[in-house]
């Protein structure tokens, strides 16, 4: 018989988020993005071999400029809504949506204060 999950220790007020606490990471990095001149903040959550997961917060209207795609990647919107931009057009990614990142140069623009989880494979090992 499975035992119940161990309850998490209560967080201390103002303490940094633990690695798996996505809700707290969202709040923490939205606050950092709002204080940043470029309206963004990022945190590498997991780096395991070629796999990387990064929490990215963007304020409304801010963007990640066009850049090359990794070998494989997806973006999931945890808060707000964003648009994946490519030379061929735009693809909205609303809260809760999970989309593959196009295998071409692309960018990301926040339609409102937003947080996404970028999962990327950066090498084949």
Question: What can you see in these coordinates?
Answer:
This protein is mainly beta. It is built from 1 helix and 9 strands; from the N terminus they run αβββββββββ. The protein has a domain of 81 residues: Sandwich (Jelly Rolls), CATH 2.60.120. The strands form 2 sheets. It has a 5-stranded antiparallel sheet. The chain has a 4-stranded antiparallel sheet with strand order 3-8-5-6, with no helix packed on it. Strand 1 and strand 2 form a beta hairpin. The longest helix has 14 residues. It is globular and about 35 Å long.
Q: Total number of helical segments?
A: 1
Kindly name the structural category: mainly beta
Order of helices and strands: HEEEEEEEEE
What is the CATH superfamily of the domain at 41-121? Answer: Jelly Rolls
Instruction: Quote the beta fraction.
Output: over 45%
Shape: globular
DSSP helix fraction: 10-25%
Largest sheet: 5 strands, antiparallel
The termini sit apart by: 38 Å
Q: Give me the Rg, rounded.
A: 16 Å
CATH architectural type of the domain at 41-121? Sandwich
Q: In the CATH scheme, what's the topology name of the domain at 41-121?
A: Jelly Rolls
């Amino acid at each position: 018989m499975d035992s119940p999950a161990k309850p998490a220790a209560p967080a201390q007020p103002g303490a940094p988020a633990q690695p798996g606490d996505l809700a707290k990471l969202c709040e923490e990095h939205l606050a950092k993005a709002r204080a940043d001149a470029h309206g963004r903040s990022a945190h590498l959550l997991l780096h395991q071999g070629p796999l990387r997961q990064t929490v990215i917060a963007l304020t409304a209207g801010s963007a990640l400029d066009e850049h090359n795609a990794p070998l494989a990647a997806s973006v999931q919107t945890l808060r707000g809504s964003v648009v994946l931009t490519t030379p061929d057009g735009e693809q909205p990614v609303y809260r809760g949506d999970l989309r593959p990142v196009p295998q071409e140069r692309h960018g990301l623009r926040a339609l409102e204060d937003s947080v996404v989880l970028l999962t990327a494979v950066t090498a084949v090992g």
